[in-house]
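The instructor's notes for this session suggest beginning with a concrete chain rather than abstract definitions. Hand out the sequence below and ask the class to guess, before any prediction is shown, which regions might be ordered.
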Amino acid sequence: MSMIVLLILLGMGTVIVVGVGERLSLPWPALMVFLGTAIALIPGMEKVHIESELILPIFLPPLLYATAQRTSWMLFRSTWRFILFLAVGLVAATVAIVGASAVWLIPGIGVTAAIALGAMVSPPDPVAVEAVSASAPLPRKIQQVFQSEGLFNDAAALVIFQLAVSATVAGEKLNFGWLTARFVISAVLAVVVGFVMAFLVKWLMKFSHNTVARSTAQLVMPFAVYLVAEHVGASGVIAVVVAALETRRQDVAERAEERVMQEATWSVLEMLITGVAFGLIGIELRATIMDTNVNLWEAARAGLVISLFMIILRFLWIGVVMLLVDRKAQKQFGLKNYLKGVTIMTWGGMRGLATLALALSLPMTTADGSPFPGRDAMLMVVVMVLGVTLLGAGLSFPAAVRKLSVVAKNEHKQEQMIAARARRASLNALKHADDVPEEIREELRARLRTLQIQLAGGDEGVEREATLKKIQKHNAVFAKYQTLSLNAARAEVLRCRGERGVDPEAADQVMRRLDLQTVLLGDSTPTMTLPLVRPRPAARKAAAKAAPPADATKDPKAAPRGPAGEK
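After discussion, reveal the predicted structure:
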């Protein structure tokens, strides 16, 4: 019963903390850590603990799945070097630095236990970064680096941690050759599991056309993928990411209502799980501090030193990697702006759920019954690392973004391009349709121009009451060709999402607006002027400027072109 009460308190607390965070312009996940610590002070709550082996299977799969769906295979193809250097290379370098520092700072810890500590604190949490950056909008290029890194670094850290702990318990040395082989095998198996599970879910959903049932399958999928992958010795993290990417790739244009339902469901679920997870971090942090038997000052000093080394290493590593991988970026933006971006990406390397779960799963004793070397000191180091990188960095992240003036600029241009292509595709579908009454054709052309502005983030309200009355008698015909043109527009947006150089988030924004328009319109409502999104005035002006002149709507060939004169 106490666990149920705790979950209710954290769930309701999330609602309050989100509102407080918005008013104070502070990241609400960091505030949830403080709320969790406060809840732990309630009499009786100090005895409530969630089993450490349940933390990752319960919280990690849905949060990873939701984050992965904001990316695409094409984005990973274009950023694979970032993924390799950051999600694998930086994790390995952090393990080495932290391990060496721990051997120096923590008496009697041993090399293998120090490596386990490095694996615990090495992976930044993509959920923490995603949630914190909502209070300080970042350029999409920086967000993509965070997402690409965060979706895969847990896999490398988990393999290193498991092997290091096993070696420590058995009193053996860590075999680095077997470590590398184990990671490669785990990753390959995870890719296979991800593809197979995505195929099976797609096959199962063919048996039901019920939108609610199909959306339920999407909710269950990440948990099933994670458990199957872990059962066969594969990386559950990589399997969930692969399944999410493949499921997103298989999306079809006609499922507007399903996408709208899933978007709303995942938004609620993601916020609730994130709130509960970070609240549990606060509860466990307090329990760890209260239960430790080490010198708090010495352990805190070791944790601060290790945190400082991690921050310095991340800054240098990201700076060098970006120069090696994307030399054009430094020349394009200049050294000053380049260093600003590196600083923000360094400060955004927040540790969170995975670090806590691994720390809590440390065994109490080794195989011969002796205490696990340096366990209490390792837990205190983890507490300090979370305090510095999650609470300290998280609470100061919005102010750092504003101070460094690292803000998104002109990122709505890609949405305008995708909206223009969607309109052009819908006009082409209408052009090649047979037996369309001319008044309906003209009305749809005018409305598609208005829809393009709305899809690009703008708003244009146009009254055509007289024309609407004229076409009421053609209502069924109008609905038919309206559906035809909107399906063509959605199919074009999905094609855009899988193209090189297209930001998946920009395509998702356009698709989200288009799906909402479609669901609200239905198949028989001859109106397309309801504004669904009210962006800032600057975005509306830019969207209106990107739209074609009124006379261009009569000729699909005169519609605005995408990059490189795309038709």
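Then share the key points. The first helix runs from residue 2 to 24. The two ends are 62 Å apart (CA to CA).
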